[in-house]
What does this fold into?
Amino acid sequence: MVNTKRILQLVLHIAPLVVFWDLIKSVLTIIVNLKTEPLSLEIIPVVAGGASALLTALSGSTLLYSITIAVLMMPSAASHTVSVPWIGIVGLFAMLFLDSFTTSFRVGRGYSVIVRSVDVVKTYAVLAGLTLLSISILYYIGGYFANLISLLEEAAAQRISWMGGASHILRIVVVVSSVAVAVSIVKSVGSVVALFTLPSRAASLEYLKNTVELDVVFKPFFTRIMVFAASLAFYPVLLSLLSTIALANLTAWLAASLPQLQLLPVLDVLFNIVVFLIASHIISRVVGLEIPFRLTRGRFVYAVALLLLIYTAAVKLAVDGGAPIAAAITSPDFNSLARVVATSYTNYAHYILNFVELLSRFLGVAP
Amino acid sequence: MSFRRAVGRLRGFTPLLTAGLALLAFSIYVLMWSISYMERAMVATSLLTGLVGFSLLSASLYLLRLAAYVYGVDAEREKR
It folds into this structure.
């Protein structure tokens, strides 16, 4: 007897191979030509998509399938156009159907479900409408961001010359954030449409009675990016405070005690990363972007710790300046601390400009 | 009695739906503003307007969801 379930599961593994065959073939040609042709950065999306397609074929997972479609759309979105892989999306529906069918399908236990044909038609119509709606929302939001970013590049070319080099990274950031925004909008539009087409009194009352879900805390879009930017602005201050207190002496001592290892650059990068992580943690905990602002114990402790850190660094600077300890504690040297922080900002700006220039050279944008 | 029925209907999901749709239209208008600011090379103003537009959009979607829940409570009561 033929096992129907096994055959359907096999289809689940073969379908991604068929749909993404072009992608897999191009990855195979890249691997074959690896010895003759040099590697370039443009093949990264192709290789990522091919690896994801192969993983989809191996696992038969619908989640990996949708990730592969997203990777496929990425390079086209980065070059100002939004192309929709229609075959891939139709295939996604087939995959979802097969997936839920094979998980609930049992061999030899036939049963029938009686559904009115009106309901079947209604279900398909709602499904098709929802799909079209979500694809058009994605299309318009992608187009909006592409338009915005091309205008931003024009403006940058006129005014801010160094931003031209960063446009590759800027595009990737914009694509990722636009996908996140579009997904959240599509999700809430889908829930609204589903509630209007299939109203349920019990579920509605359950939601309306539940004040925890109903009273939303206002949270602006791009909160994470804002926290990232704020910690980028904050971490040189923290780094200079910490290096004033102990870090500079520590690194100097470590480098001097093991001179043959050339530890200084490694330690520098390591401390930068660690301090950046601490700074982003403090920013996300202390500042917060929600309204109403609440004073929690954690916020209080972090704020007091930060004040203590500033005070200790000023005292240390006063002691280094030659003042006795009692005088240093009562009158810390805030002036030279301000000078240290300002110097750290200018160093940081130099570092960022160098980094952007290096990156743009690496990506082949600048000569 | 038609006046009372109209008031009763107004108490339901209609005001929420109206407010949600009005806010949706306004948010799309603000997002278009953001594009036009960017055309005039006013980068920071444009980005701030975009942020305002997306916040208004999420507020309108929240209102529409509330309207859908209120509609759900009403609709099944009428069916019975």
Summary: The two ends of chain A are 67 Å apart (CA to CA).
